[in-house]
Amino acid sequence: GCPIYALDRTKMLAGDPSATTQRFTTPDYPTIGFQATTPITFDGGSAPPAGAPAMLMRMADDAWSASIPNDRLELWTLTVDFTTPGNSVLSGPTTYATQPFDTELCGYTSFSCIDQPGTSVNLDPLREVIMNRAHYRNLGT
User: Fold this and answer.
1) Which range, of 20-29, 47-56, 86-95, 131-140, averages the lowest pLDDT?
2) Helices and strands: H and E segment counts in the chain
3) Does the predicted TM-score (pTM) go above 0.90?
4) Domain definitions of the chain by residue range
5) How does DSSP assign 15-33, residue by residue?
6) Which of 23, 36, 65, 92 is least buried, going by the fewest C-beta atoms within 10 A?
7) Which residues of 49-74 are buried (b: 16+ CB within 10 A; e: fewer)?
8) Given this model, what pLDDT does residue 141 score?
9) Cα–Cα distances in Å, from 100 out to 7, 38, 39, 63, 78?
């Protein structure tokens, strides 16, 4: 699956050598070679509530597996407890249906299949990654 790392930022900024990291993973999708989640960012407006979990998003193409019933976005939440790591949890996904899309650009496992003029070095199609930033918006109640 896609590894997700949480770093104890408070201790790191204080120079505390006891700062730790925690690792989480989302389940693998067969067929594709690269698995990625995109952290959701906060820009302006009302901040997330204090203590709110971190949020991450990834896309899923129904062509990747029969276990994916339709093209969708998946929202994951991550609650991290650096004091008691056993309390930390990655939850999800909450799924959101999208209009149909197709990520097959030159197979699902090639990492260098797009020709460039003037060189034999090919480009990676980056088909598995949400390329735009995912934004958090708190619109109130």
Assistant:
1) 131-140
2) 1, 7
3) no
4) 28-136
5) T-TT--EEEEEPPPPSS-S
6) 23
7) eeeeebbbbbbbbebbeeebeebbbb
8) 63
9) 36, 20, 23, 10, 28
